[in-house]
Specification:
Blueprint (H helix, E strand, L loop, with lengths): L1 E5 L3 H12 L3 E5 L16 E2 L10 H4 L3 H11 L10 E3 L15 E4 H7 L9 E5 L3 E2 L2 H14 L3 E3 L4 E7 L2 E7 L2 E4 L2 E4 L5 H5 L8 E12 L8 E4 L2 E7 L2 E6 L5 H18 L7 E13 L4 E4 L6 E5 L3 H18 L15
Parallel strand pairs: 1-2, 1-12, 2-8, 4-14, 12-19
Antiparallel strand pairs: 3-7, 4-6, 5-6, 9-10, 10-11, 13-16, 13-17, 14-15, 15-16, 18-19
Helix pairs in contact: 1-5, 1-8, 3-8
């Protein structure tokens, strides 16, 4: 078989890598100048159970996430997770019955031990020791580079314009650089997928959900874990470089105020926070399928396959492995049963 993968974000890069590793002839198309130039690069990239919603079929993939990341770390030396664990708390005490696997309620003294710079630790918080963070851009580029080493052809600055249909069957992708033929087209381009799939008989309800992230310079080690509290979510991406989730508001002036207000909350919460400085912020448009991940064939003749999901950073290594196995062997992956287009 041969495959054209549309979109070199985290999902497309994972699919291309896993297919190329299985010996498939792969062409990876990206409209930007480099991998991860779209929404992937604007992700908070919280890997684990407590920072992610698991709607629909995502729940069936959840148990494999950490194992697939460990596998990628072994396969790709440039991939490294920051295994810091996470702390999260709300304005009201946590209901123990709502805890997920590997989560624990801890008290103020344990919180202070994990986050010694926190000025006023809450009475209790949920601690998830296995939670981690990853640099989504570095991860995506590592996957693309590895796909290339396994023979994949990677094309940047190449916009997918439409699917090439001959006698009712999709035979490739017509792009700004010409036609790229393949036996299977894999669409992973997030919110752009419905436009490409519009003439196809598939239910692809994919909403666009804006999210704003601020980059902050800070004293190294100011934040030790992934912290999610009522006023902000923050984690250290690398030494002295923080990612800060900004509440979503409309308008550039309102976003600037929201970024500054959230930074103020961070400064107030941590000793040494007065040294934090806002480097900038960006708003990305995340694909949010209405009923969880959409993964599977979009046509009866199996010439088009779609893979769109949230949270893509969490699920991409697992989804890429399962998709490649499904495409290569022709056997449906039972783990993806509830992710099929049109599934409810």
């Amino acid at each position: 078989m041969s495959a054209v993968v549309v979109g070199a974000g985290i999902v497309g890069s994972s699919v291309a890598y896993h297919l190329a590793r299985r010996g498939v002839e792969v062409t990876l198309l990206e409209q930007g100048p480099a991998p991860a130039t779209g929404v992937t690069g604007d992700s908070f990239a919280w890997i684990g159970g407590s920072g992610v919603d698991w709607p629909g079929g995502a729940r069936d993939l959840r148990e494999y996430v950490l194992a697939d990341y460990r596998r990628l770390e072994a396969e790709l030396p440039d991939v490294t997770l920051r295994r810091t664990g996470s702390l999260s708390w709300a304005r009201t005490p946590t209901d123990d019955s709502r805890l997920g696997p590997g989560q624990f309620v801890i008290g103020r003294s344990d919180i202070a031990a994990l986050e010694p710079n926190l000025r006023h630790p809450p009475e209790q918080a949920v601690h998830t020791p296995s939670d981690a963070g990853v640099d989504p851009t570095a991860l995506t580029r590592a996957l693309v580079a590895a796909a290339g080493r396994h023979g994949a052809r990677v094309l940047h600055d190449t916009s997918a314009l439409s699917l090439q249909v001959t006698n009712g069957r999709v035979e490739g992708v017509l792009t700004s650089t010409g036609l790229h033929a393949a036996t299977t087209v894999v669409l992973t381009a997030g919110t752009n997928v419905p436009g490409l799939c519009e003439p196809l008989p598939a239910d692809l309800a994919i909403a666009a959900s804006p999210a704003t992230l601020a980059r902050v310079t800070a004293p190294p080690g100011l934040v030790k874990t992934i912290v999610a509290c009522p006023d902000f979510e923050v984690r250290e991406v690398r030494e002295g470089d923080l990612l800060l989730v900004v509440p979503q508001v409309e308008g550039s002036a309102a976003r600037e105020r929201a970024a500054q207000d959230t930074l103020h909350h961070l400064k107030t919460a941590f000793q040494g926070g007065d040294q934090c400085r806002l480097l900038g912020y960006r708003t990305g448009s995340r694909p949010m399928p209405a009923h969880g991940p959409v993964i599977g064939y979009a046509t009866h003749d199996r010439s088009v396959y779609v893979a769109v999901m949230h949270s893509a950073i969490c699920l991409a290594p697992t989804a890429g492995r399962l998709i490649a196995d499904e495409l290569v062997t022709g056997r449906p992956a039972s783990e993806l049963e509830r992710c099929r287009p049109g599934a409810r």
